Amino acid sequence: MDIKKMPKEELEELSYTEIAYHLLQEKKKTISIRELFEELGNLLEFSKKKFEEKIADFYTAISTDKRFIVLDAGIVDLRSRYSVKIRAEDLDNDDYDDVASELDEGATDDNEDDDFNSIVDDEDYEDDNEDLKDLLIVDEKDLEE
Question: For the whole model, what pTM was predicted?
Fold first, then answer.
């Protein structure tokens, strides 16, 4: 879809982030958030006043939308163009469940184990088991006697 050829009435039905997403897809390169909003404002024919009133909200929307990644100095790009590498030392034990959503979507069944092994630090796992070695499992029947 060529967002720049859409009529203004159709564009106004889309969210700012949806328009920004399509603009970035067409550009295929990074751009500053301000320049992206200027392009969006030009498409929607914003007045200078409306532009200044809305840019902060736009920045917040882009920053919180998971389709975008904000790089250094207010530069934005599509997150799908970047892969995420996670190191085990950067995670708490409680974060292991959340990691699956951060792994590359392109992971296949063949490398799923490799992805998990790169996240789990064997030493931490052994330490956790060390804490459990003194636990005793008791059957309820034994307690009744």
Answer: 0.56
